[in-house]
Amino acid sequence: MTHWIENIANELSKRDVEEHVIASGTSISGSIHIGNSCDIFIANAIGKKLREKGKKAKTIWIADDHDPLRKVPYPLPEDYDKYLGMPYSTIPCPDGCCDNFVEHFEKPLLNVIEDYGIEMETKSGFEMYKSGVYNDYIRTAFENVERIKEIFNEYRREPLGDDWLPYNPICDECGRVNTTYAYDYDGDTVKYRCDCGHEGEMDIKSGNGKLTWRVEWAARWKIFGTTCEPFGKDHAASGGSYDVSSVISEEIFNYPAPYPVPYEWITLDGEAMSKSHGVFFAPEEWLKIGPAESLNYYLFRSKPMKAKDFSPKMPFLDFIDQFDKVEKVFYDEEEAPSEKEDKKFREIYEIAQINVGEPLPFRPPFRFLVNAYQIAGDDLEKIFGILKRNSQLSKSFEDKEFSDLTETELAQYRQRVDNVKYWLDTYAPKFVKFQVQEKSVPKLPLTEEQDQFLADLATLIETREFSDAAELHDAMYEILEIQELKPQKGFQAIYKMILGQKQGPRAASFLLSLDKDFVVKRLRKEA
User: Fold this and answer.
1) Which of 432, 463, 481 is the last residue of a domain?
2) How far apart are CA 343 and CA 329, in angstroms?
3) Which of 57, 181, 426, 474 could anchor a disulfide with 20, C-beta 3.0 to 4.6 Å?
4) pTM here?
5) pLDDT digits (tens, 9 = 90+) for 249-270
6) Residue numbers belonging to the annotated binding site
7) What is the residue range of 384's domain?
8) Binding-site entries for ATP
9) What is the dihedral of CA 44, 49, 54, 59, to 10 degrees?
10) Is 470 a member of any domain?
């Protein structure tokens, strides 16, 4: 079984075209997140795979920046509702940091595109209308308006009006584009009326208007020679945008509809992403907690129409563990659970990989670093020692010292530690956080049995060398069994004396991560 990106590329390779154009598009109605930017990631992966197969292919991204604002996006103030209905291209920047509303919400995405290895040509719907790219398509749509109405009406409960035109001018009076109704035209001059009460005329060559979406989408396919396009599942519904635009594309513009790649929405902690409610997770935010390849892996590990829920909180640790495992299997650092899983892991990582041909990145286990960072602080060398003592370095690094790391490996290590720090500061729940009480012994009550356990444990650690946490773990349990002390009570005593709280990370690994002399003295309440 081959990966679905590979399957799509194989299908497209059979088509007799000079160049494949994989299109993507995003409505600039607010922050661009990992849900509504899926088009871009999928399109890029398909284009990349086609080029690997020796096919000429490029990826384009169209900013739908001439569409009307329908909801005020988070975190804009409520008084931005005065711009509802106006094209994004005409709305000012909310913070005064950019030229306009569109640039304000586009820039964060465009700033990280290279980090994700995405190669794409960017287009602007606003600029396309202003430069006249759509003019001939508007004229063609007007000339064929009766057939277009028939196509639309096949999928509508209420038929369109006899004088309806597939075009929305921007009202000269109120500046809105979603409240106008074009009802007649003479050459390039369109007559319209607006819900604000204004009636007027406009010249299509001015760019102050736009085709109805399903006609615009079909026109866009012809303009760019689109052969494939990913899009959200709403467009893929029976009788939805893709169905209608496909008929218009073939009948009105004489162009075959592109290969469709519909995808399911991504939810955030079980909630639908919403720019107006501030429920979203952006690609630039992802880079603060994980490598770019891990977002690719998240998007490509399952088929596009499979439901996906993302959580940057505790579930993220399970996810990043899985990503690390897949990466290490790909680089032959670890073995997969089975032959089937091995093949699957390698196929997915090949799609997710950004810098093809580069050696294994130095990314120590994220979950372990969550604890190591809280013990050692931002001291990379000290953290490296903790990793080494706890056998947390994969086989390519297990015999290395900190000084052996290359400049590239150090940068990768730095990035991962920064990711861990940001995750701890931003998304980690309280129970994950701790602080070693180095200056004084916490004054928390212990039973006589707990005191004896700590004393015996101190002697054990002082007199024996442990090669890994599993060995210390077993030795600790031997003491607990001899003393007939419940493990929970024993571990609780450790955390009370070192952290000043009742819970903490896995005890054996935690103790091995600390300075040995400090541990012995603290367990004996000497310092």
Assistant:
1) 432
2) 10
3) 57
4) 0.94
5) 999 999 999 999 999 999 999 9
6) 275
7) 366-432
8) 275
9) -10
10) yes
